[in-house]
Write a structure and sequence with these properties.
The complex is a heterodimer.
Chain A (H helix, E strand, L loop, with lengths): L4 E2 L17 H4 L12 H12 L6 E4 L6 H21 E4 L7 H13 L20 E5 L7 H13 L4 E7 L7 H4 L3 E4 L5 H14 L6 H11 L3 H17 L8 H8 L4 H10 L12 H5 L4 H13 L4 H13 L6 H19 L4 H18 L2
Parallel strand pairs in A: 2-5, 2-6, 3-4, 4-5
Chain B lengths: L3 H4 L12 H13 L5 E4 L6 H13 L7 E8 L5 E8 L3 E4 L8 H13 L1 E2 L10 E5 L7 H13 L4 E7 L7 H4 L3 E4 L5 H14 L6 H11 L3 H14 L13 H15 L3 H16 L4 H14 L3 H20 L3 H27 L14
Parallel strand pairs in B: 1-7, 1-8, 4-6, 6-7
Antiparallel strand pairs in B: 2-3, 3-4
The chains are: A alpha/beta, B alpha/beta.
The complex binds adenosine-5'-triphosphate and magnesium ion (MG).
Adenosine-5'-triphosphate sits at the interface of chains A and B.
GO molecular function (chain B): DNA binding; DNA clamp loader activity
Organism (chain B): Serpula lacrymans var. lacrymans (strain S7.3) (Dry rot fungus)
Family (chain B): Belongs to the activator 1 small subunits family.
């Protein structure tokens, strides 16, 4: 007996989630293209398409959480309104089976009926409802080359009544003949001031007090990914509201949520490797000179791994300490930089994290103790 | 009779012994109604799974403990049958997509869609969403991860995802961006001792401090291992006093033997001998990475300081190649050859410099 029944189409109204319980990323997803923060250029171009009856094929690309999916959904909604959205917009993403025959079939079915314009919607507003349908291929960079190749023909076959919007993170994974058929829109990581104003807007709407240092912690930990900073903000506010009495959100909370390794931990590791930490409180001058051997480094690495910190996070924070270090020589830094680069690649390829943190540690240790 | 590990597994967030801050955080998230997608990560045996099931219990009440185990068959694009075990309750479902190997994407696509498009039928359910727990999320293929992305956004009103992984490094950024990260560190030695003593108290016997300390030291932060060892010891010597011999698992002893072989003699014949031993280990399904790390760590204990870093360097190097390559044994063997030649070269240097004697050098044709 199935515990979950397939939802019948008519009986249950869709998306009735109580807005108070909605995750903020969804609740504050831009409703119109003017809601989209930053991305001014893209928005300006798209705004024009709202008044003209034509739309080119489009290719949106950029890092996660910068508004690609939101923008195309908002644009489609503004073009067609709530009633026609369903039969005018087809969204296919990486969670759908995208073997080429299936894509072809879906698009064929969808593009079959010629759209009729019907301007006044049930909400009383007027929508342009231009005479074409939009096919959104989200996460297009995960489509195979073959499927992309076949898509060229499909785009041509249905050119009269369909417009394609390809959305991806890595534009280089889209084959050239396909990319060249589209107008390209680059989505950039959000700059600090846009992030900060969007976050403040949400905080005000949710009655959350945001100190400036919390905002900058959010900006620093999310590196231009707005979805990430909104998720962090919501979690932090949940946590701070749940204590009794409620405590304000601190920058430390954000770092903890974001999985940043605490400074004290990274500094401690760096010192084991012989890297001097500037402004360190317990200056033990003889301790510093004492070279700690292999065993000390290995023990430290084991301890770090037990703490469960992510290896790529450790590498990136250690990288910042070493590369920006005020007294290490350029030569030492170069040797370390090589180690960081190799480790990053290895970790992404799925190599053992402990072995590679140890490798990085030992190489830094050697670079620093060999020449000083 | 169930093992102690299972019998004394905490059921609610309040029962958990360590990381109180984390438990409190989970509790407030579960109470808030806008529970996010989550990613639990940390070393094995740190208690991620336990914490996840406590969180589910907090979300849905004791109903989540009524589990049902099913096997589902999926079809790969080439119509091959993939069998996946599924553990589910009325409120959640738990899968390990890596069971489907390269076709994990198919499992993710079909199963999640199916769940996402259905609604909670139990009107008394405390949440209107269902939870999907995905184990070993760090071994999800890129395609499977891509398949998760939009699903996670689109069906958020019906479904939440909890990913469980050892590390976040192998997860793509768009997935991390959609989750709240929860780091579960291994418990400290003191925390582990508390847990052991708690078990002893429940079973009404006395656990000498020496014994608990020894068990904890041996476990390397893995609480599951500590509890298993604890139970085994208690069977062997019921009063747990005097000097306890914590038996090493066979494969570990075997790995140590391999290390000894490498350090004792460096010759082509020895390489062959070691190779046979590696085959033996691999055919018993000991993961090659574990084999390499265990042998390497033993070797560095037994060589001069000047060689240690190099030996570990090559271990890291060949472990990485092993992941990408196909024949594990080649890379294990390559590492052994490398280590032997390093060892030999340093030894040669030392003896050469002290006296040029009539030592018979057995040359191995390895290029450095
Ligand atoms: N430019 C933006 N303006 C306003 N909100 C944004 C913007 N970018 C992202 N967001 C917020 O982040 C959430 C996710 O954005 P969106 O789905 O558009 O990202 P994406 O670019 O498609 O990312 P991915 O590459 O991971 O699919 C939105 O729901 C919204 O809350
Ligand atoms: Mg998107």
């Amino acid at each position: 007996m199935a515990f979950f029944q397939v939802q019948s189409n008519k009986a249950t109204p869709k998306h009735t989630a109580d807005p108070a319980l909605q995750p903020w990323v969804e609740k504050y997803r831009p409703k119109t293209i003017d809601d989209v923060s930053a991305q001014e250029h893209t928005v300006a171009v798209l705004r024009k398409t709202l008044t003209s009856t034509n739309l080119p094929h489009m290719l949106f690309y950029g890092p996660p959480g910068t508004g690609k999916t939101s923008t195309i959904l908002a644009l489609s909604r503004q073009l067609f309104g709530p009633d026609n959205f369903r039969n005018r917009v087809l969204e296919l993403n990486a969670s759908d089976e995208r073997g080429i025959s299936i894509v072809r079939e879906k698009i064929k079915n969808f593009a079959r009926q010629t759209p009729r314009a019907q301007m006044v919607a049930s909400d009383g507003k007027t929508y342009p409802c231009p005479p074409y349908k939009i096919i959104i291929l989200d996460e297009a960079d995960s489509m195979t080359q073959d499927a992309q190749g076949a898509l060229r023909r499909i785009m041509e076959t249905y050119a009269r009544i369909t417009r394609f919007c390809l959305v991806c993170n890595y534009v280089t994974r889209i084959i050239e003949p396909l990319a060249s058929r589209c107008s390209k829109f680059r989505f950039t990581p959000l700059d600090s001031s846009s992030t900060s104003s969007r976050l403040s807007q949400i905080a005000t709407a949710e009655h959350v007090v945001l100190e400036p240092d919390v905002i900058s912690a959010l900006i620093n930990t999310s590196s231009g990914d707005l979805r990430r900073s909104i998720t962090y903000l919501q979690s932090a506010s949940r946590l701070s509201a749940s204590t009794n009495p409620p405590t304000p959100i601190t920058a430390g909370d954000i770092q903890e949520i974001a999985g940043v390794v605490p400074d004290a931990v990274v500094h401690d590791f760096a010192k084991t490797l012989g890297v001097e930490i500037v402004g360190d409180m317990d200056v033990d001058n003889d301790g510093r000179k004492k070279t700690r051997g292999f065993d000390a480094v290995q023990a430290k690495v084991k301890e770090l791994m037990r703490q469960g910190y992510s290896a790529s996070q450790i590498v990136s924070q250690l990288h910042d300490i070493v590369i920006l270090h005020p007294t290490l020589h350029a030569r030492q830094k170069s040797i370390c930089a090589l180690a960081f680069a190799e480790a990053d690649k290895a970790i992404c390829d799925g190599a053992d994290e402990e072995l590679w943190i140890l490798e990085v540690g030992l190489r830094i240790h050697k670079a620093i103790s060999s020449d000083s | 009779m169930s093992l102690w590990v299972d019998k004394f597994r905490p059921k609610t967030l309040d029962d958990l012994h360590y990381h109180e801050g984390l438990s409190a955080r989970l509790k407030s998230l579960a109470a808030s109604g806008d529970f996010p997608h989550m990613l639990f990560y940390g070393p094995s045996g740190a208690g991620k799974k336990t914490r996840i099931s406590c969180t589910l219990r907090q979300l849905f009440g004791s109903g989540v403990e009524r589990l049902k185990i099913d096997q589902r068959v999926f079809l790969s694009p080439s119509k091959r049958k993939l069998e996946i075990n599924i553990v589910q309750s009325n409120y959640h479902i738990e899968i390990t997509p890596s069971e489907a190997g390269n076709y994990d994407r198919v499992v993710i696509q079909e199963l999640l869609k199916e769940i996402a498009q259905t609604q909670q039928v139990d009107l008394n359910a405390k949440q209107r969403f269902k939870v999907v727990v995905i184990n070993e999320a760090d071994s999800l293929s890129r395609d499977a991860q891509a398949a998760l992305r939009r699903t996670m956004e689109k069906y958020m009103s019906n479904m939440r995802i909890i990913l469980c992984a050892n590390s976040t490094s192998r997860l793509i950024a768009p997935i991390k961006s959609r989750c709240l990260l929860m780091r579960v560190a291994a418990p400290t030695p003191e925390e582990m001792q508390t847990v052991l003593h708690h078990v002893a108290k429940k079973l009404k016997f006395d656990l000498p401090d020496d014994a608990s300390k020894q068990i904890v030291d041996d476990s390397g932060g893995n609480l599951r291992k500590a509890l298993l060892v604890f139970e085994a010891l208690k069977m062997q010597s019921p009063d747990l006093s005097g000097s306890l011999a914590i038996a090493k698992p066979d494969w570990e002893t075997y790995c140590h033997k391999v290390a000894d072989l490498i350090v004792q003699e460096q010759s082509p014949a020895r390489v062959m001998e070691v190779r046979a031993k590696f085959y033996e280990l691999l055919s018993h399904c000991i993961p090659p990475t574990i084999v390499l790390k265990t042998v390497a760590e033993r070797v560095v204990e037994r060589v001069d300081e000047s060689l240690k870093a190099d030996i570990m360097h090559w271990a890291a190097f060949y472990e990485g190649r092993m992941r990408i390559g196909n024949k594990k044994i080649y890379h294990l063997e390559a590492w052994v050859v490398k280590v032997m030649s390093l060892y030999k070269a340093s030894f040669y240097m030392l003896t050469y410099m002290s006296t040029v004697n009539d030592h018979h050098f057995c040359h191995i044709a390895f290029c450095l």
